[in-house]
Every structure is written in structure tokens, then in C-alpha cells.
Specification:
It is rod-shaped, with a radius of gyration of 32 Å. It contains 6 helices and 16 strands. By secondary structure, the chain is an alpha+beta fold. The strands form 3 sheets. Strands 1, 2, 3, 5, 6, 7, 9, 12 and 16 form a 9-stranded mixed β-sheet that branches. Strands 4, 8, 13, 14 and 15 form a 5-stranded antiparallel β-sheet that branches. It has 2 domains: 3-220 and 359-395, Neurotransmitter-gated ion-channel ligand-binding domain (Acetylcholine Binding Protein, Chain: A); 223-349, Methane Monooxygenase Hydroxylase, Chain G, domain 1.
Length: 407
């Protein structure tokens, strides 16, 4: 048992905060600005000593009915339906409510009217739950060397920055079917293949509780292959047409190759807005720049052959055929060999990226098992309670404790 668990078991520690989430949307994943937008709901559950004396919750725990004697039917397991709760004013538990912040958010705000604070009859008296929805923009440092064949993990980091929350820790929020770690089925990303989200709880170097939401993604690379790589491949291949022009026609050859070079430069300017601006070369940069360099080599070769034809015509007439054929064969072979290497390279890179992501997902299973073990240990050494219910809350009573049933 950890030191924290020992403190909780002895009553010296602070009651942990259960936390979970539901993600409603992930949009505008931008490798250029290294950010993305998200819409999510945060679930919390914590203990408040004042709420342990709530008359309805006490009566339900002791006698199975409300303080006014009203009774609701239970299910076969002796539990009340999970959607029946008692809403309370958030101000009543303001002193104990965890005031978490999004550590990597550049602009995040709570959706007005979505904060709900309530008590559940399936909990021991004193436990409070809350739900609140947020929308915002989050920073995400992305490693883009493998772009556009990369895999990324988007993260949302929550923390407890207030001194009043010192010593509190996060544990995973569980509903009636398992951990509250959810992404809605309708979340679809045109440029990405997404996997199930994950969560991790830990304590940072300053002793503050942290909760990290991770969303694993693998980029769909087809757009970049068809719209950028193949276009650049075609432009560079057309440069070989210059070998069909007479070697002593330097203006004709130069005009052809320089036109293609200008086309390549214009193409790079057009696509620059959708490419990440990083200090290192990505896979896409490697290809585009190598094709540009290949056309420069052909332009230089044409100039050198033209120089020989104009300055030493007798040598040019003697060695024209082997010089032209040898140079063309060498450049074309280099172009073909580069493409063979490049295809092998991107296949290996894609496999490495997906394997790395798979290893992280496999590792998260062990991490999840550890978090579950921590939660069970704490549950065994604290007051104890039933698994949390799921679904949107419905009112059982008003803030003054008067029963107010809603169908």
C-alpha cells in the first residue's frame, strides 16, 4: 500500500477526487499552430463532510426512504435508478469542490448552464458529484518528422493548482459499467483514424494532482500522397524531357527545365500553408526538396553540356552520344533508386509509428490496471460506496432538501 493509501486508511489523508470525462468533439487539429479544439464534459465525485448530514441522503441510507417518508422502488440489486439524484446549489460545497484547471489550454471556457452539482442515493452520505461541459483550444506539441505518415496522441491535462487542494489526489471516476472514459461515436475525423481515449492519474514534481486525457490518432496520408507527392513526382519526371532536345540547343533545354523549377517553387508556396513549420525536415520535405534538387542537377548538366558544345565543338561532336546517354542514364537511375528507397522508407516509418502507438496502448492497459488497484484499495479503506451511476441527472429534491420528484 502506498503512503497516500496508508494516510487515507488511517483517516490522516485527504479523500481523493474521482474524475472522468466524455468527449463530444475534436476539431481543427492543426500541425502548423500545434493546437486543436475539443468539446468535453468533466465528471467529478468527492466527499464533503457537510453533505453527510443531508436529511434525504441520511434517511435513504438508514431507512430506505426520504426524510418525508416517500419511497421509490429499487431494482433487483437493491439500488435506486442511477438517473434519480438530488441537485444541490454548488455554493453549498464551494469550499470542498475541486477547482481544477486545464494546464495546456490556450483558451477554454465552461459552457453556460452546464454545471450540475448533485447527490446520489446510491452513494454513502457526504459524497457529492458534479458535471460540467467545456469547450476550448488546447496546445499539443507534435513530433512531425514522419509527417504525413505519423501517429499522434492529443492530450488534455487537468491539475489542481490551488493551495487549498494540496494533498488531494485524483482517482478514476467509475460509472455503473466501468471507468468514465468515453468519446462519443459520432466523433469522426476526416484526416485521422482515432482510437479509444485513455486517462492517467499521477502527481507532478510539486505534489499537485494531475489527470491526463490521451486521444491516440493515426494520420490518413492519402491526400498528401495524391495531391502533393505524386504532383511533385510528375513535375520532376518531366525534367527528363530536356534530354530529348538537341544538346547544343541550350536555350531550349534551359527554358524547359527552368520552367519546371519555377513550377515547383510556385507549388511549394501554394502548399506551404498546410505544411507544419518546424526546424527539421519531415518526410514530405525530404521528398519535395530532393525532387527540386534533382531538377537543379539536370539544369546544371544541361548547362555544362551546352558549354562544351559552344567552347569545344570538336570534343562535343566526338563524345556527344556517350556523354548524353551516360548522363541521362545516371540521372534517371538515381531518380528511380531514390523512389525505391523512399517507398521502403515510408513503409518502415509507418510501421514504426503504428507500432509505437500500439506499444503505448498496450502499456496503458497495465497503467489502467494499476489505477484500478489504487481505486479499490482506497475504496476498501474509506467509507465505501456503490459504483457510480451514469446518465444525465434528474432532480430528486431541491436545494433545501424538500423532495421534488421528476419522472
Amino acid at each position: 500500500m502506498t503512503d497516500t493509501m496508508a494516510k487515507v486508511a488511517s483517516g490522516a489523508g485527504r479523500t481523493p477526487i474521482e474524475i472522468g470525462f466524455t468527449i463530444y468533439s475534436v476539431t481543427n487539429i492543426d500541425p502548423v499552430s500545434q493546437s486543436y479544439d475539443a468539446d468535453l464534459k468533466i465528471f467529478c465525485r468527492w466527499h464533503d463532510g457537510g453533505m453527510a448530514r443531508d436529511p434525504d441522503m441520511v434517511s435513504l441510507a438508514q431507512d430506505g426512504c426520504f426524510s418525508n417518508g416517500a419511497v421509490l422502488p429499487r431494482d433487483a440489486n437493491g439500488r435506486w435508478p442511477h438517473y434519480i439524484v438530488k441537485e444541490i446549489d454548488a455554493a453549498l460545497v464551494e469550499h470542498s469542490r475541486p477547482h481544477y484547471q486545464f494546464a495546456n489550454a490556450s483558451d477554454v471556457s465552461a459552457v453556460e448552464g452546464t454545471l450540475v452539482t448533485y447527490l446520489s442515493p446510491n452513494d454513502k452520505p457526504g459524497f457529492v458529484r458534479s458535471e460540467e461541459r467545456f469547450r476550448g483550444t488546447f496546445f499539443q506539441q507534435m513530433e512531425l518528422r514522419a509527417f504525413p505518415f505519423d501517429a499522434q496522441t492529443l492530450k488534455i491535462n487537468l491539475r489542481l493548482p490551488r493551495r487549498s487542494d494540496a494533498g488531494r489526489m485524483f482517482v478514476q471516476f467509475h460509472n455503473s459499467v466501468g471507468p468514465q472514459i468515453e468519446m462519443k461515436d459520432w466523433v469522426r475525423l476526416s484526416e485521422w483514424i482515432r482510437y479509444a481515449p485513455e486517462a492517467n492519474t499521477y502527481t507532478d514534481s510539486k505534489g499537485r494532482a494531475r489527470y491526463t486525457i490521451s486521444i491516440p490518432l493515426v494520420r490518413r496520408y492519402q491526400y498528401y500522397v495524391w495531391s502533393i507527392l505524386l504532383v511533385m513526382c510528375g513535375v520532376s519526371f518531366l525534367a527528363f524531357v530536356s534530354f530529348a532536345i538537341n544538346a547544343d540547343d541550350l536555350p531550349g533545354r534551359s527554358s524547359h527545365v527552368l520552367t519546371l523549377l519555377l513550377t515547383a517553387v510556385a507549388f511549394k508556396l501554394v502548399i506551404s500553408d498546410i505544411l507544419p513549420k518546424v526546424s527539421y525536415w519531415t518526410i514530405l520535405d525530404i521528398y519535395v526538396n530532393c525532387m527540386f534538387f534533382m531538377m537543379l542537377v539536370i539544369a546544371v548538366e544541361n548547362g555544362m553540356v551546352g558549354l562544351v558544345a559552344s567552347r569545344a565543338p570538336h570534343l562535343f561532336e566526338e563524345f556527344e552520344l556517350p556523354l548524353e546517354v551516360g548522363t541521362a542514364a545516371l540521372v534517371i537511375t538515381a531518380w528511380a533508386a531514390f523512389h525505391v528507397w523512399f517507398v521502403c522508407y515510408i513503409v518502415a516509418t509507418r510501421r514504426s509509428e503504428t507500432q509505437h502507438l500500439a506499444n503505448k496502448l498496450t502499456g496503458s492497459e497495465a497503467t489502467a490496471a494499476l489505477h484500478e488497484k489504487r481505486r479499490v484499495e482506497w475504496q476498501q479503506h474509506s467509507a465505501g460506496y456503490e459504483p457510480l451511476g451514469a446518465g444525465e441527472p434528474k432532480l430528486l429534491g431541491d436545494a433545501n432538501g424538500e423532495p421534488l420528484l421528476r419522472a
